[in-house]
Amino acid sequence: MQSEVAICQACMQSKSTGYYIRRIAEVWLTVLVHFDALRTNPRTYLTATKWWLKRKRVRARGQFAPLLSRSPRAYRLWMSRQERNRRAFSLPDARHPIVALIQLENEHESKDLSATLESLAAECLPALLIGSPETLTLAAAIDRINWCNHPWLLPVSPGDRIAPGAATAYRAAMEESAVRVIYADDDLLIGRRRHRPYFKPDWNSELFRHCDYISGACILRASRSDLEALADTQDWAEQLVRQLAGAGTPLHLREMLHHRRSRPRPTLPAQPLDLAADLPPISVIVPTRNRVDLLRTCLDGVRSADYPDVEVIVVDNDSDDPETLAYLAALDPDRYRVLPHGGVFNYSAINNRAAHTAQGRLLCLLNNDIEVTEPHWLATLAIQGLRPEVGAVGARLLYPDGRIQHAGVVIGVGNAAGHAHRFLKPDCEGYFHRHNLPQFTTAVTAACLVVERDKFLTVGGLDERNFAVAFNDVDLCLRLNEQGWQSLYEPRATLIHHESVSRGLDSDPVGLVRFAGELAALKRIWNTDEICDPYHHPHLSRASEQFAVAL
């Protein structure tokens, strides 16, 4: 009995020692990540430190997050922290069998198989090697599968590994869902070192059209006939994913379950839309106050748009500059309608008033500080806005220096809402080229937004009471989303935005109080300080607009 107690005490002491060693290693790794950030960009790091010491924690985290995530050790630190929540190894489950299918393209791939088979064996998953002497073809593999048990298929490439507990995670998802595709997050392997994690969005059919982020990191509930129909195709796994994904809504497991040698590449640039279709009338609404230099540039851009029927409504909010008033008076009444709107600036009220008088089937909300760079922007946005499942469509907006100002809106960033990929250069890879790909988003900015007028009016337009200036576009998009009209980001329409140049920033006491009230309303109505944007990820930092690993 005493010996058993001694053994238990020794085990407890060993576990405790191991825990403290891991914690010390994690703290040291954290220090190294901060050192990398300081060395890479000392000025920004010290500025973030200053805000942290002044207890401006939101501002500090927003600057720290992208800096820390750029460290080559950042993902290793994230993995170290995740080890505490690692799942146990799986056991076979006759109710939910999973069969791995490994396609051998050539004889050289056989040397990469050992790690793949080892990871599958650890999860008690049987594997069929297509291209091996025993299973030469996909048709032969089909005959070797026991279809009576309604198995799920796990296509895996040679050299890929699945994470410990992957089968358990997938089987738990099977219990809760009747979907035919379940996919998970993945990272890349160099030898046995893991890097470049892809924390994926929930199902995004528009993004998937341009970038297959599912194949090779998923399980499929396919029938024998589904597989037989693709027996003669070389890329049967990708085709099967597309076929099954199109038959329902794939389920995303927000877990890192796959370690891969390579990933499918996105289609870049995205194929241009067919602009030859008949387009309905569109009403472009431009609020303005003074700053005729900006307004002239904006309206010249609207006039240059290659679009058959455009109504332009300029809503003047108490301009008193003589040159601006002269310019407005000289506008051609057959092409432009000037709508006076007096009183305190209320962006929502201004646009709502114009929308009720607009004649177009489509509305384009456009800031007067937008500069047009090419003639097809309006048609591109309009074609997307006419889709029955689409609500608000937003363009890619750039700062005058060429960096991104808006590439969709992420809910929850800063516990409110933030512009995705802000400050990134368009020709950079960024976060898996997401800024260069059309995709559904939770919201888009009203600095340049196209929506069908009937949809806009159905949800009551912009909220004039709660969101007079800020977050009215986010609120509008969320209400459209609730009706089944999803917001969409369209980078094939790219414009320049001289952000807040005409109205100025909210740095005065009245503006700060108003903004605080609108921020509180956004959190109260939409719970933005708690929810996770389905097109973002819980393991991406809520403090950063640049899709940084959450540390």
UniProtKB/TrEMBL annotation:
Name under which the protein is recorded: Glycosyl transferase, family 2
PANTHER family (alphabetical): RHAMNOSYLTRANSFERASE WBBL
Pfam family, one: Glycos_transf_2
Domain Glycosyltransferase 2-like: 283-397
Organism name: Sphingobium indicum BiD32
Entry keywords, A to Z: Transferase
Domain of life the protein comes from: Bacteria
Regions crossing the membrane: none
InterPro entries linked to this entry: Glyco_trans_2-like (IPR001173), Nucleotide-diphossugar_trans (IPR029044)
Keyword Transferase: yes
Signal peptide: none
GO function term, MF aspect, one: transferase activity
